[in-house]
Amino acid sequence: MRATVIHAPHDIRVEEVPDAAIQRPEDAVVRVLRACICGSDLWAYRGEAARQPGQRIGHEFLGVVEETGSAVSGLRAGDLVVAPFMWSDGTCEYCSEGLFTSCEHGGFWGSVGHDGGQGEAVRVPHADGTLVKLPAEAVSDDHLLTGLLALSDVMGTGHHAALGAGVREGSTVAVVGDGAVGLCGVLAAKRLGAERIIALGRHTVRTDIAKLFGATDVVAERGEAAEAAVRELLGGRGAHAVIEAVGTEQSMRTAVNITRDGGAIGYVGVPHGSGTGLDLGVMFDRNITLRGGVAPVRAYIPELLEDVLSGVIDPAPVFDRAVSLDEVPDGYRAMDDRSALKVMIKP
């Protein structure tokens, strides 16, 4: 089969690799219908996250079950399924607590020795605990299928950030980051009943999506100017809930400084310097709570799936470019130079 591999920074290739195949009784093989490139994939692409030459890449996909191992009971060939960005057994103590990303037998797509999502097929360990069935009729609805793909990562991660930030009915929310996760954070905040949502971003295409998703205000400034603008909008007090979806020193510093006293920050931006943006003395004095981390999206898919299917939420607009498998290297370049927000792959 063909799959995307990374050989070195800025060296993404689509190559022939061994076919995905059942290796353990708990496995399933999924033929990929949709996959995508994540902002976190760019850290490997830019050389800021180590990868072995020839390692698979990609962790967001949905597709059709082609084959199941002898121990798989909840799935059968022909099922349309979505995969969260990590696999999990669904039975360990952490999974029972809803923290599927800490599963004692879990793992991450594209890790050494495992298939990545950006290919023609994927071997799925612990298929019963990992995969979520989708309505079969969705396969013929391209827009719906696109929205469902967001459940593999970005929609669940935005929801995790909103929960971490304590978004509730009537709250004020500020979202730091105009990438796909930040935009899904806007959508999640709206879904949870936020009254006012301020999106921080300077790219019109992205802030237009933020408005579509429920943002009531847009702040284009950065740094101290952004902090002043947000506080001016909110009477000088800051936001009850702040979503941090970038992971840099500046983004975290901005998040802290625009949080209302007694408020909370939900952080899901992959950290690359964000720790230096934290001043625990300031957070202590102002009673600011920090919650977040790797989103256990497997826990969130069932409730978010219901709302996508009913039309309550539609995360599909975060995908602004589609490529074939052969064009995946072009997709990486487009996301790296920010000419694309989030690239979908149609193998």
Summarize the structure.
This protein has helices spanning 41-45, 93-96, 127-130, 142-149, 154-164, 180-191, 204-213, 223-233, 249-257, 280-285, 297-310, 328-336, and strands at 2-8, 11-16, 28-36, 55-56, 61-68, 80-83, 86-87, 107-108, 121-124, 132-133, 172-176, 196-200, 217-219, 239-244, 259-267, 289-292, 321-324, 343-346. Helix content is 30%, strand content 25%.
Estimate percent helicity: 25-40%
Average pLDDT number: 97
Helices, by number, come to 12
Structural class: alpha/beta
Total DSSP E strands: 18
| Terminal Cα span | 11 Å
- Characterize the largest beta sheet: strand count, sense, and whether it forms a barrel: 7 strands, mixed
Low-confidence stretches: none
* Shape call: globular
Provide a descriptive summary of the structure in words:
Helix 5 packs across helix 6 (180-191). Helices cover 30% and strands 25% of the residues. 52% of the residues are buried. Strands 3, 5, 6, 9, 10, 17 and 18 form a seven-stranded mixed beta sheet that branches. Strands 13-12-11-14-15-16 form a six-stranded parallel beta sheet, with helices on both faces. A three-stranded antiparallel beta sheet has the order 2-1-4, covered by helices on one side. The protein is globular. The mean pLDDT is 97. The longest helix has 14 residues, at 297-310. It is an alpha/beta fold and 347 residues long.
